[in-house]
Input
Amino acid sequence: MKRILCLDMDAFFASVEQATRPKLKCHPVAVAGKSVISSPSYEARKFGIKTGCSIWGAPRLCPEIQIIKADNKKYSYVSSKIDDYLKNITPTATMYSIDEAFLDISDLQISSASLAYQIK
Output
């Protein structure tokens, strides 16, 4: 039986910012392009900040939010490192987008849940 594991790294851009800037950890953060939020952190989501929210409206919902300009080079780099990690698990790992991947884990001797937990 074929087993395919799908990874979707929710809040990817905001999570990368929090991981690379420790002072942002556990604080409401949102990554934005010119005028729209593309990735709110989980902490920001608690205040109703969503993808697509304007950068002007977000502070009204969450005055302490830190809005960070998107750094696509950084996100691409981190995504490539995640791809390398996944390919060490199985060479069938395929990045579908910057924050999504599929792994054929049919031949691995580990439960899907255990592997997903290990990757997380």
